[in-house]
Amino acid sequence: MRQSMTLALAGAAMLAVLSGSVLADKYEGRKKCSSCHKSQGESWDTTAHAKAMESLKPKVKAAAKTKAKLDPNKDYTKDKECVGCHVDGFNREGGYTIAEPNKFLTGVGCESCHGPGSKYRGMHRKAGADFEKSKKTSPRKALADAGQDFDFEEGCNACHLNYEGSGWKGNKKPYTPFTPQVDKKYTFDFKKYVRDSKAMHEHYKLDGTYTGEPKFMYHDEFQATAKVGVKGSDD
Ligand code: HEC
Ligand code: HEC
Ligand code: HEC
Ligand code: HEC
Q1: Is residue 72 part of a domain?
Q2: 22 Cα: distance to centroid of ligand 1 (angstroms)
Q3: What is the DSSP letter of 81?
Q4: Prior bond of 174 cis (ω within 30°)
């Protein structure tokens, strides 16, 4: 009796963990990210990712839609077959929902690539203050443990390679209508595209607050040619 109670309790605790209520990282939207990382935010504003919701409106990108056998006059901005890949964290905790659209989650923003930020963004603030005060560096490892993504590729694949026959193992419906069968230009090449700073955002010099692994494979390459940007604070 006693043992089965203990087991039932352990089971309930396991469920809480598995259902994500304990481990889940929440999406918060790009407002805070952009207020500290002003230059990246402004550069991102000019990208196709920032305007991804526009593309779902009637008459926008009509030729591309027709070619992909979509209706160019239809409003797809509230269509669950479409919205998921044109916003941040669709139907995830804190993420975009069709019922209550949040403008800071509209479009493919910071957290779609860098990971849901509710836990790690506070760590950036603290580490930045420590570095400013005493040049003390902080480990990237702690950010990765809090859900920040330093690899990117799987995240891109979930939108860009989500169609039947893409070779990406995670694929499941709804698929992207824009596949290489529709036009070769929709072929996704991670190593080429992730280096395209017009599509990600321009890169700006970091002070070096964070050190160690996991470091993105092109981090040093990007930093070697990075511009001097403008920083801000989130308050
Ligand atoms: C949440 C889904 C999503 C994620 C994650 C995502 N993308 Fe995209 N990407 C899109 C959508 C949607 C568009 C098309 C935007 C539009 O024109 O409406 C796009 C467009 C692009 C383009 C074309 C830009 C242009 O100028 O035509 C490139 C390049 C690109 N993405 C690369 C990447 C890379 C590299 C990653 C990962 C680091 C990534 N994307 C992550 C959804 C995503
Ligand atoms: C699985 C993710 C996914 C879904 C679902 C999805 N899209 Fe997209 N969409 C993308 C990606 C990725 C791109 C960028 C393709 C590229 O440029 O390589 C894109 C690009 C577009 C573009 C721009 C194409 C161009 O040539 O500029 C339009 C328009 C668009 N999507 C509309 C839609 C509509 C309408 C739906 C629903 C019927 C939809 N999308 C569903 C991922 C998705
Ligand atoms: C489509 C993917 C994508 C999106 C969207 C995106 N980033 Fe990035 N970001 C990257 C990549 C790739 C790097 C390079 C990582 C590295 O060098 O370690 C990067 C680097 C950075 C860096 C490090 C310094 C630099 O400039 O390289 C900061 C800070 C940053 N991003 C902030 C943001 C903010 C803020 C947003 C939203 C306004 C954003 N990012 C949106 C892909 C993205
Ligand atoms: C309170 C200000 C603040 C907020 C909010 C904030 N950051 Fe940062 N972030 C920093 C500071 C400070 C650093 C260290 C910069 C340096 O070394 O120059 C940093 C570093 C980074 C880096 C570089 C990590 C590396 O590999 O060195 C990325 C990427 C990044 N932030 C993205 C984001 C994203 C995405 C968000 C929103 C979810 C965000 N930040 C929110 C202040 C902030």
Answers
A1: yes
A2: 30
A3: T
A4: yes
Exposed, middle or buried, 108 (CB in 10 Å: 0-12/13-18/19+)? buried
Say whether pTM exceeds 0.85: yes
Nearest atom of ligand 3 to the alpha carbon of 219: 17
Task: With beta carbons less than 8 A apart as the criterion, state whether 50 and 107 touch.
Answer: yes
154 lines ligand 2 (CB under 6 A): no
Domain membership flag for residue 10: no
Proximal ligand: closest to the CA of 146: 4
What domain range is 216 assigned to?
Answer: 25-224
Q: Could you tell me the two tokens for 37?
A: 């990382």
CA 108 to chain centre: 7
Q: What is the pLDDT of residues 41-85, one digit of tens each?
A: 999 999 999 999 999 999 999 999 999 999 999 999 999 999 999
How far apart CA 5 and CA 12 sit, in angstroms, is 11
Q: What is the CATH number of the domain that holds 181?
A: 1.10.1130.10
Q: Quote the number of domains for the chain.
A: 1
Distance between CA atoms of residues 139 and 212, nearest Å: 6
What residue has token string 């690539």? Answer: 113
